[in-house]
Amino acid sequence: MSGTITNFYAGGNTARGFANLFESSLQGLDRVYILKGGPGTGKSTLIRSIGSELAAGGYDIWFIHCASDNNSLDGVVVPELKLGIVDGTAPHVIEPRLPGAVEQYVNLGTAWDARQLSGRREDIAELNGRIAQTYESAYACFAEALRIHDEWEKIYVDNMDFQAADELTNEYTDILFRDLKLDKESRIDHRFLGAATPKGAVDFVPNLTEGLAKRYFVKGRPGSGKSTMLKKLAAAATQRGFDVEIYHCGFDPNSLDMVIVRELGFAIFDSTAPHEYFPERAGDSVIDMYAHCIKPGTDEEHAEALSGIKQRYSAKMSEAMQFLAQGKALRDKLEQIYIQSIDFRIVDRIRDEIWQEITDKTVAAD
Question: Which InterPro entries match (predicted)?
Fold first, then answer.
């Protein structure tokens, strides 16, 4: 029987630049292979190959996806084996805690022809510079979109009943946790459920919430208290000793989009665009923050201002996504330069050596 594959992001292209949450997913691991090497050296292929083989062998795995390339992976974690394999190149540089004892560097750069690459030095430098510029432009657009989003939020914050929001949060704290507590320290995993990618906004909400008995779809407007409620519920989970998965917003990582407590079988998440979902199975329910906490008629009273804000916000987000797509196209060109210089027989040998180490240690542990 195949293992379960859980998909999420640990890095994101956000309004605050590249946000890196990788360290959280690597906590508690005994072995971490950190892959080094340029673009096109086979890091993602190696990660996917070993992860898929372990999943086929019955192990549950986490696939950590790449926000800058929809077809690439940044890592795989196998909780049962306390094993991780991650791309350790920029922008998600992994700092080893116990080099050699836990983390092991794997240099895929040994597979390339350095002399051949030296002949393309100017092309590589130019492409790297242009790629950096596209990401700087994308992040600037996201930052401007966040400033516009703050205008959007202010309209609702000014019409917010904060007491009603607190009462609603307290009500759901009681519903979700009752008087339950566990006599242990919580494990907290910080992740992203989705990301801004070269193909637009992508999320893994259906995969992440699969098999949970209860899903709470939090509806509302910007500034209606969704993230604040999630932060308070995450704090309540940790205070009671439950392990909690905290999913940050892929646009503004200071905000939260989802909290999952698997020991209690529930997920509660911001179910508005770009990750808008609706109840479709038993155990699904809606929490409407607008109806509970915002002054009636706010949408209608501010319709003209809201329309202009939405248009400016959408335009700036679209511009940012275009820059991400340009960066991906440039990165594809850079990868082709490296691919032409790679001896993939060496990459395959490195992959086989890692697989052999994993299987040897797994057998020894059994």
Answer: P-loop_NTPase
